[in-house]
Amino acid sequence: MNKNITTGLVVLALMQSQNAFSYDKTSDCKANENNRFTFSWPISDGCEDKPRGGTSKGAKVEFATDLRPEWLKLQEVGLAKFERDRRAILAMQGGYKVNFDFLETVGYAQDYIKDRPYQSWGTEYVYVIEDSGNFISLQHVMVMRFEKEDGTVSEPMVMKHWRQDWTYEDNALLEYSHDRIWQVRKLKDDDVKGTWSQAVFQVDDSPRYESFGAWEHNSSFSTWISEKTRRPLPRREYSVRDDYDLLEGFNRHTVTNSGWVQEEENWKLVVTDNGVADDAFPYVAKEEGLARYRLIKNFDFSEGDKYLDTTLAVWTTVRDRWQRIITESESVSLHESVDGKPMFIPLFNIADQFSNGEVDEKTAKQKVNEVIDSYLK
User: Fold this and answer.
1) Using CA atoms, how far apart are residues 224 and 70, in angstroms rounded to an integer?
2) Entry pTM
3) SS3 string of 321-333?
4) Which pLDDT value is given to residue 29?
5) Which range has the worst mean pLDDT, 50-59, 105-114, 215-224?
6) Less CB within 10 Å around the terminal CB: N or C of the chain?
7) Maximum distance among all alpha carbons in the chain?
């Protein structure tokens, strides 16, 4: 594989992710096949219970068995609460196989028809790209290898994934409202004392959601849970659902000796044009989500290292620009697409061009700012 993954491959992976490793076909289901899933929805003879997602097979991985250094550092005796919190966040770094599971557990409409469960997987590395004490930034990068029909394994596909920023005693949160609008909420110092905010960003580093909460620790695990938080629909939903507008729920991160787990409890919410919950029938359904990050070893993540290294100037410019926008604004509103393209496409193009030496740093930075400007309302 070339030193840099071409824009075409990256964009193709993103655009086809519903087919490549996120969606399944009902036609693949055999009648009378046992279709079981978490929480034991009634088993039927049809295909409506068969999970969507996970059609591709990944290369075999080897799970780590030794206690990792980050976990041992987290367990040290005598740490101040602040330092133990920091070490829990830093313990999320590393290379993982990730399994994603989402299941609607409750429906609220009289004529409710349950959605098919969702399952997918990925192999990704979580990098610490900044640690300044009170602020830690973690960048996720997928490095995927697929098993081909002949049993051989593909070259790695690299995709910059989501990012999470953690800030100690953060009193200005950029919260999702509705319809691609985010608003700054100011908090009193007493309200955030001893807490950490988690801000989550899309693959193009545009905002997704933010909330805050306190870490709790014991010798078995460390865990953090958010306030109830609004979020835009994820790709697994907006590509197939149009009966609700956003997710509202809780997000929990739990660090263990073998990796970490993200748990979600989400309500599927319908809102009016001004973002207020619909009085007539606000909630469509409730879902439970589980993303399990299990540490792996002897897996080559070097293409992810190279991607971050060769595109560093571009993505630093993108992050810095978003930081200025968020800091200087009371709200942010974005177009879903420009010229029929979501924002990640031109930004990934610029990163790829810079990595391949097709544009210099000055030109790349100029293009980044022009792209972001074009998506701001």
Assistant:
1) 17
2) 0.90
3) HHHHHHHHCCEEE
4) 53
5) 50-59
6) C
7) 61
Compute the radius of gyration of the chain from its Cα atoms: 21
CB 219 within 8 A of CB 75: yes
Joined tokens for residue 280: 């007539």
Rounded-to-integer distance, Cα 33 and Cα 352, Å: 45
Residues with Cβ within 8 Å of 265's Cβ and at least 6 positions away in sequence, in order, are 249, 250, 286, 288, 289
The candidate with the shortest Cα–Cα distance to 73, out of 46, 94, 50, is 94
Exposure string for 55-88, b = 16+ CB within 10 A, e = fewer? ebebbebeebeeebebbebbbeeeeeeeebbbbb
Answer whether 159's CB lies under 8 Å from 139's CB: no
Distance CA 177, CA 238 (A): 17
Residue 191: C-alpha distances to residues 134, 224, 269, 329 (Å): 17, 16, 27, 22
List, in sequence order, every residue forming a beta bridge with 248; answer none if it has no partner.
Answer: 230, 267
Q: Give the mean pLDDT of the chain.
A: 88
Q: How many residues does the chain have?
A: 377
Is residue 194 within 8 A of residue 81, CB to CB? The reply is: yes
Q: What's the rounded mean pLDDT across residues 317-336?
A: 95
pLDDT at 47: 63
Is residue 57 scored above 50 in pLDDT?
yes
Question: Which residue did the predictor score with more confidence, 28 or 146?
Answer: 146
Whether the CB-CB separation of 121 and 54 falls below 8 Å is answered with: yes
